[in-house]
């Protein structure tokens, strides 16, 4: 009678039998098949090095016996790198060819034209340096390299290994050489910013802020439904404007006309005439709360963005809706305008950023790199670049196609606002009341601020909703959840010795998330 075993036992018995059968050959390499190895090497040479196999032959110290094919069973040219000395190029002539049509190419009939002395010299000058010299001159990538290579997709490739790439003029090992990982260049030193004034007067969260082009006053909008105008030098209240019936979410002052524009959660977009301090125009069309607005710098056009997932372009004078920019699938939190293409940039709670064609009213580019809501976008005043803020990362991008530059990681909070000045100081303000200051060029975080809330407020009321530099860029104003406006300035007493940059040349990590 056959004894019955469990499947478990039978499997292990089978494994043991297999192991005993092959134990003598365990871990031994498979014998090399000469013919298949030849084919493999020939294919590898042609596919990976085909672009350089036609190059001029190198002068070499050939081995004691035999010609160039010594030690190579496959009949290929050998390019051995002579260590410690520069390799010279031997300029060869054309391939042999018959003297006329229909003549067979034989040793007696072949013609081969050799280059003249001057042609050989000019070709030798034009050839690139040898690999040893290229390696000696290779240094870590600088900022210029980061900007030049912007647009390469963000990659999670291991640092230290480069893609196989043969440089003309190099030896065959150049494809296998590990390149140095790019290091962060030393950031520019910026003086720290310090709080020097707290302005109170609003009865609700201060949601938005804007400085007028003459730098004499600034305007704020609040959850108390009022718009207040303040003197920039003294911080005194000059004027209060009422008219919105819900939180005021956006304000901006025109540089082309004496108008102030505001928008709010009451779906209204208003144009105020500052000579009479009255509303002179309404722009009707949004179906839900209007979260932000911006003015085009060169034409009389107003752009607004809303919780209804659209942005709208308005003719200021006629109040007509020129375009409705649809495509986002969730609330559009921020909108920015510029004179160059793309003229409109939007960031949305659907995690995407869109660059728009103003004339056609259509999307040019959609950037999907962020994993969470994009609540803030800022354009650099001098460079053709911009940054976007999200809880996962602050990302820098290059116009016009939205090529990725770098991540600014470390501000782990809901980023409500971004501001940047010409000096390259980027400010990010968050929902938890923290403010980080960054060097735009290198992405180095040189200061972190968490200002105390106004006396009588709860610590949970710490939050920054908006921030802006004044026109001189020497003052930074923040609109906060403790119902105040805080004004910061650079610390004039600070020097690079008293506040050194605690910077280490870390490996740059470009992550997809």
TrEMBL record:
Keywords: Repeat, WD repeat
PANTHER family: PLEIOTROPIC REGULATOR 1, WD40 REPEAT PROTEINPRL1/PRL2-RELATED
WD repeats by residue range: 199-240, 241-282, 283-324, 325-366, 408-448
Transmembrane segments: none
Protein family membership: Belongs to the WD repeat PRL1/PRL2 family.
Descriptive protein name: Pleiotropic regulator 1
Database matches in InterPro entries: Prp46/PLRG1-like, WD40/YVTN_repeat-like_dom_sf, WD40_PAC1, WD40_repeat_CS, WD40_repeat_dom_sf, WD40_rpt
GO cellular component terms attached to this protein's record: catalytic step 2 spliceosome; precatalytic spliceosome; Prp19 complex
Gene3D superfamilies reported for this sequence: YVTN repeat-like/Quinoprotein amine dehydrogenase
């Amino acid at each position: 009678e056959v004894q019955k075993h469990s499947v478990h036992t039978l499997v292990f018995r089978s494994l043991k039998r297999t192991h005993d059968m092959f134990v003598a050959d365990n871990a031994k390499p498979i014998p090399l098949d000469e013919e298949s190895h030849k084919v493999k090497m020939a294919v590898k040479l042609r596919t990976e090095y085909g672009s350089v196999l036609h190059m001029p032959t190198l002068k070499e110290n050939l081995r004691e016996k035999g010609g160039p094919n010594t030690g190579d069973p496959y009949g290929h040219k050998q390019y051995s790198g002579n260590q410690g000395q520069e390799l010279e190029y031997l300029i060869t002539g054309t391939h042999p060819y018959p003297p006329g049509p229909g003549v067979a190419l034989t040793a007696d009939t072949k013609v081969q034209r050799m280059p003249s002395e001057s042609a050989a010299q000019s070709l030798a000058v034009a050839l690139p340096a040898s690999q040893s010299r290229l390696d000696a001159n290779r240094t870590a990538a600088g900022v210029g390299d980061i900007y030049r290579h912007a647009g390469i997709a963000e990659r999670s490739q291991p640092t230290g290994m480069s893609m196989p790439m043969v440089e003309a003029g190099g030896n065959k090992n150049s494809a296998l050489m590990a390149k140095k990982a790019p290091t962060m260049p030393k950031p520019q030193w910026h003086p720290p910013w310090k709080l020097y004034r707290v302005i109170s007067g609003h009865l609700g969260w201060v949601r938005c802020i804007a400085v007028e082009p003459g730098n004499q006053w600034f305007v704020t909008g609040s959850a108390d439904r009022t718009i207040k105008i303040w003197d920039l030098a003294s911080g005194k209240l000059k004027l209060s404007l009422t008219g919105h019936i819900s939180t005021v979410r956006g304000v901006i002052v025109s540089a082309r006309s004496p108008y102030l524009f505001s928008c709010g959660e009451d779906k209204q977009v208003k144009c105020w005439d500052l000579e009479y301090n009255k509303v002179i125009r309404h722009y009707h069309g949004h179906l839900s709360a209007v979260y932000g607005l911006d003015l085009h710098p060169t034409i009389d056009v107003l752009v607004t963005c809303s919780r209804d997932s659209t942005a709208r372009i308005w003719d200021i004078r006629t109040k007509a809706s020129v375009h409705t920019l649809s495509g986002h699938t969730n609330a559009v939190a921020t909108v920015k305008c510029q004179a160059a293409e793309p003229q409109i940039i939007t960031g949305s709670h659907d995690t995407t950023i869109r660059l728009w064609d103003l004339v056609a009213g259509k999307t040019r580019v959609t950037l999907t790199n962020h994993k969470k809501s994009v609540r803030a976008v800022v354009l650099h005043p001098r460079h053709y670049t911009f940054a976007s803020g999200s809880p996962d990362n602050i990302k820098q991008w290059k116009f016009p196609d939205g090529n990725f530059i770098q991540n600014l990681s470390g501000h782990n909070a809901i980023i409500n606002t971004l501001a940047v000045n010409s000096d390259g100081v980027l400010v990010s303000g968050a929902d938890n009341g923290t403010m980080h200051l960054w060097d735009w060029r290198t992405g180095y975080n040189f200061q972190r601020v968490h200002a105390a809330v106004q006396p009588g407020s709860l610590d949970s009321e710490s939050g920054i909703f908006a921030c802006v530099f004044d026109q001189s860029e020497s003052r930074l104003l923040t609109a906060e959840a403790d119902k105040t406006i805080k004004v910061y300035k650079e610390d004039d007493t600070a020097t690079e010795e008293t506040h050194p940059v605690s910077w280490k040349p870390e490996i740059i990590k470009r992550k997809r998330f």
